[in-house]
Design a protein that fits this description.
This protein has 255 residues and is α/β, with parallel strands linked by helices. The chain has eight helices and four strands, in the order αβαβαβαβαααα. The chain starts with 13 loop residues before the first helix and ends with a helix. The protein binds zinc ion.
Length: 255
């Protein structure tokens, strides 16, 4: 059997990774996911699955990048009222990311991209990225603009004709749409039900937990989701990530 045509780092052998590095693959995209409740209709793996999907699509689009296996669990303390959620302290997540980046840096990759898909992971990623960058030779690119990501997700809904806006995204129309697009079989369509609608205080969500705002763990209305909207969202976010990575790489590349 010849080498599989894949950007997934973990599916390659060590000689294949070595050859990839030698022939100019200098970037690794690291999804930062979670194992946490996503309402009665979506599995706990949602954020891990989406980070894996984006990492792979971004790496394929870049052409000179690999996608690392996503890091998880993440910081999901605010979902612990819901059975199954696994959470780690921010320090543990940050240490894991540090170790990931040190390892990949040692192998000679030049750009390490952190791609969080779960709200609770954005602050730890933001904190640790510059610290890691100071310790290693590779550049560290943190795709941690949560507001931009949520805006692009709402744009994706609109582009597919779904006239529904989610101020804070969790297990509603946007995330359900992505799952319909990439793993339809994991969506319990008979369990789709409305969650909390309207403005939400993110501070309250994080400090008092999701259950204080939404009994079923859902924000927004997953019944609005379509696979087409999921594809629009994936396209938009992938394009935004690729553009940002290319810009950051160009900024640190020697003249
Ligand atoms: Zn999620």
């Amino acid at each position: 059997m010849t080498a599989p045509d894949t950007v997934r780092l973990a599916e390659l052998t060590w000689p294949e990774v070595g050859r990839a590095i030698e022939s100019g693959t200098d970037t690794v995209v690291i999804g930062v996911g979670a194992i946490e409740q996503h309402g009665p209709h979506l599995p706990l793996v949602v954020d891990t699955l989406t980070s894996e999907t984006y990492s792979r699509r971004v790496a394929e689009e870049l052409g000179d990048a690999l996608a690392a296996p996503p890091v998880r669990p993440g910081c999901s303390g605010h979902h612990m009222e819901f059975p199954g959620t696994i959470t780690v302290p921010p320090a543990v997540l940050m240490d894991t990311l540090r170790a990931y980046c040190r390892s990949l840096d040692e192998h000679g990759f030049e750009h390490l991209v952190l791609l969080p898909t779960h709200g609770g992971n954005f602050a730890p990623v933001d904190t640790v990225a510059p610290e890691i960058a100071r310790e290693i030779d590779a550049s560290v690119i943190a795709l941690s603009d949560l507001d931009e990501q949520m805006e692009l997700m709402n744009e994706g809904l609109r582009a597919a004709g779904v006239e529904y806006e989610e101020p804070v995204i969790h297990a509603g129309a946007a995330e359900t749409a992505i799952l319909l697009a990439v793993a339809e079989g994991l969506v319990r369509t008979e369990e789709l039900e409305l969650g909390h609608e309207g403005p939400v205080s993110v501070t309250r969500l994080l400090s008092q937990g999701f259950e204080s705002i939404t009994e079923n763990g859902v924000l927004g209305d997953p019944r609005e989701a379509t696979a087409e909207a999921g594809e629009e969202i994936l396209d938009r976010l992938t394009a935004a990530y690729v553009e940002r990575i290319e810009r950051e790489r160009a900024a640190v590349e020697p003249e």
